[in-house]
User: Which sequence fits this backbone?
């Protein structure tokens, strides 16, 4: 961090500011030679009250050289993180697809879908037991009963289960029964929940908030790591823009940007990211081509009667063909350049 | 809600669709005379699985005539809601200012600020005990100790206290000690928390999410009302846009739009809404001129050493002058047109 | 278009409104059976003063069933448009890559790049002679001299040239010398220029505006078609969002959405769309996987000394390898499903 | 501008980079003492190829201390600019209202409105002769005939006229007949038009683009100044966001930000900024309270039959009352603090 000071700052005033800064646990270096006097701030700046210092009458502006996250970043952790759940692996060159319905609705439904997607090559079963709904009158999911049905499906298919937690009161149940705990987009900055889920030490699927920057997503991951888990899968699921032709704008450039900045695996959600089932295939393939470590896709056996998000779910048959195409695109991008 | 059907839909297929719709607890009317056949959906559509029906092969598109919220809207509740807390009133023609520091830091600090703002005419004391911080390393607030300090300040000044809840685990403490429970922008769609806080039946300050639409804000209020409280104060606090000259873009047009759509009082937060203390005065006055029922403003006695958000806090002296200007703008806009 | 009328509208008032509407050259049908009376507006609504009618005291809201564009849409022109320029083809199953420097700088530079990209399989040469720069002090391009250099490069390589027009005063020169006339993002709603360029009847590359919706892009194409050309290539080049990690947010979902709505070919610009050369490859491949009909890519032989946009240009060598990967991804997605 | 170099940059490599930079007409100073070596770039950096230098292998990042505009900024031109047109004045403490219809439709219409608004205190007549319309089929304005009608209205009322130019071909007519030439939002980055209009030396009303940052607006003003005029009025007219309850999001915080950064007068357009006539009054008053130097407001004598934008026009009677309220808010905010 560099404090650019006002051009007319006196040496005395600067010395006083330096003394103040040193009480804040950082080291301070004078930087000379520019048009303005400047101070370099180093050491542990993680708790440095930057916004307040910006208010200081000597300070013209504050410039940043480094990113604010540490353990989520590649700088101090250059090698890829591999998340392993039973036989399923994701990250560090391993690609995985999570599939399943928006909401768990019945044992027949979840078993049928789980068997179909497993047959097509998915290695995680996703399904909502607790659903965040913008209306208090909409179907909120089956709750703990839904969790039981997911467990049945896991037992029958061997697929680890991914499902969203919405409240601290279910921490114990999720710790016991869920393989990958999902933090949804609306809770990405629910810092209390991040700390608590991190403390469980289990794998987490962390979705990007609807208007969260890539840096904020990494800071949310930093909360989880700080809480106690490094087994984090990041998920781009669309951001909010002015465009109304799609439900959200799937920001696929976030994938290569994240792969550069962090060691954590990164997946994409073309179902929520677009909101329309016919956009799922092209955007799933595009995410793979952009370098994603995996995908999370809504699959429903009877989407026209689904209790939630039927408009963006694909059928098991469409999913089956998509998995083959995904495979081909993976091969296409992974050929070593030297073979050309 | 109107389902616009495909032009080539057969009468038989339409009849089958109507039967399906009727099983969903709504009434269905055929609408004739347009270029496409249409179905009008009436009755209680609050749990209607619209996104799934949109997937039906007969349906070309779905059009909405009505807003999705009910009890938060003016349609069934035309008269303004007045929120009363002790001697303080807001809404239904009553204007109120909430002021105080971003974070409670010490007894001296909060008492000094509380006395100053009370002397200038503020009628609520705001101050953070639990702080949502994007970094896990930043000052998180004093927690329950901060709540105790706020209670001391209330006792000395008589000002009711407004402070943010971040976790269900503090529901009991907030129910007992806090006058107005704040739901922050990042928790506006934490539906679990909305239900739980609503169930307390206490006044709530609900802040608009960083990328939430006005309709989503009203749906969050609907959650609170559905949970058990109608004493809700809505707060415009800036939305996220591409502009970087301000921390957020304070959407003041949300004020007259909300005043038209809902009976709930609406205030503005020019401190978070802009991020810079020198923009607080012009935007506070603008919010008043736009018809706000009140303001929430960060005031700190020594902003240059504040532990959080010092850059956007004004001093008690600046606040004092601002309160006089607010008074004058209030008078300017409230003169009856007939007196002109 | 459907006018939803107020519930308490009298039959007399409705009859008067119908008479008014009929004077506007549209046909009007009463739609009965819904909760509100409604009027269906049909016929040629292209000049219908919708915003004014929305103001009518009887009208509660206006709903749209149809898109506002006609000749750019698939409804009345279902088959793909193929744009042919000399030996180069794009659209209707033909894929093409346009490559070259941001700015033409010298004969050596443009010839060297043109030969390299032709050798790698590009079929169009792009290069800026007139450059839109946000600063009046930045390098504005070589102007007509740059055009001459592009012509030399075309003569030596046979590649048709794509370059941006910025002013009506150059219409004649572009009509004579340029193969594909580019309308840049900042001029996408320069309606005067759209009409004039359309009237030339030549192929046009139309870039999406920084904050233009997909519908507005298609309306701009409608201007060109109305002016006199149907040989239009649409280009997604990134939209403006709150994210700052990339220069723009490349909206790849616009590709399948556009392919569904319009018959015109659609390409992507991963160079401007991301702003960083190391993001060009993953986003180029992603665009191909999403179904793009082509790409436009900045290639510079010495990007570190380029006079403009060096940060987002790739070298001819990187381009060469990218072209091979593009080829492989094209094959991967084009295998017929029946072969699976 | 500060180039932050990589930590492992050798002294030799840095010396070579410094030599390269010096050939670009800037002065370079080594800045020592920070964690990374840095170079300060001073002198005339207006044409410095920053994006290309960012690509240099030694450069980690580039930091900015100064704004990129010069003559539009307060740094070298601290005193307010006063724009004078006949008897009308705006800026430097002078407040002015521009009013009139979206489109000039007939002599009766424009004369009637002009007389009404003059009677209510407006000092400029605005009215569109050339209209930018997103559809090629919508009413494009009366063109040069509209200009003639505006001249008649000016002759009868004495009000100077403000109208939008859309094409270079009308430069001569506008130079001769128009008092304040408007550059619309869609042409804010039509750099050719900016240069040409600037060269006329006449007063210009420059509207902010739909997704333009405040800095880009000031760079567009810099083009005009560089072209030849300093009589520029800036206009905030709403930006594009995700919110759909209003046509645009009127960014009123842009007013105090602009007043701080530039000497040019700043006005607001609550008609286009909101899109709804009933939001014009609250947002007009809010703009005044935020410190605007003026307003531009759509007024139509029969908005329900207006040929364009009737939904956002107010009647002369509503305008009359609004002018009185504006007066009162102006007085309320202008009382000197010392009088409190």
Assistant:
């Amino acid at each position: 961090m560099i404090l650019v000071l006002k051009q007319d700052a006196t040496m005395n005033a600067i010395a006083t500011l330096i003394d103040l800064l040193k009480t804040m646990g950082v080291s301070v270096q004078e930087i000379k030679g520019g048009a303005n006097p400047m101070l370099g701030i180093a050491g542990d700046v993680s708790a440095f009250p930057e916004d307040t210092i910006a208010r200081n009458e000597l300070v013209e502006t504050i410039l940043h050289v480094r990113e604010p996250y540490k353990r989520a970043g590649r700088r101090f952790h250059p090698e890829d993180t591999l998340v392993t759940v039973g036989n399923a692996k994701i990250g560090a060159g391993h690609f995985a697809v999570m599939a399943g319905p928006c909401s768990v609705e019945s044992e027949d439904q979840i078993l049928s879908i789980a068997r179909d997607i497993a047959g097509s090559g998915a290695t995680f079963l996703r399904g909502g037991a607790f659903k965040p709904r913008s209306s208090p009158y909409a179907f909120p999911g089956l709750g703990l009963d839904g969790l039981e049905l997911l467990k049945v499906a896991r037992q029958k298919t061997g697929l680890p289960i991914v499902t969203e937690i919405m409240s601290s009161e279910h921490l114990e149940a999720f710790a016991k029964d869920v393989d990958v705990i999902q933090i949804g987009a609306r809770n990405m900055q629910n810092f209390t929940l991040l700390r608590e889920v991190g403390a469980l030490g289990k794998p987490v699927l962390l979705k990007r908030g609807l208007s969260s920057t890539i840096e904020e997503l990494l800071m949310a991951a930093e909360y989880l790591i700080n809480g106690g888990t490094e087994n984090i899968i990041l998920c781009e699921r669309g951001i909010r823009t002015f465009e109304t032709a799609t439900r959200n704008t799937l920001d696929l450039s976030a994938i290569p940007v994240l792969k550069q900045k962090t060691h954590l695996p990164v997946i994409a959600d073309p179902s929520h990211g677009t909101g329309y089932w016919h956009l799922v295939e092209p955007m799933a393939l595009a995410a793979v081509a952009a370098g994603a470590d995996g995908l999370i896709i809504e699959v429903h056996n009877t989407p026209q009667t689904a209790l939630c998000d039927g408009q963006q779910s694909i059928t098991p048959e469409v999913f089956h063909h998509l998995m083959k195409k995904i495979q081909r695109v993976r091969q296409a991008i992974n050929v070593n350049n030297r073979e050309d």
User: Anything to note?
Assistant: The two ends of chain A are 44 Å apart (CA to CA). Chain A has eleven helices and 14 strands. The domain at 2-63 of chain A is CATH 3.30.70.1140 (Alpha-Beta Plaits).
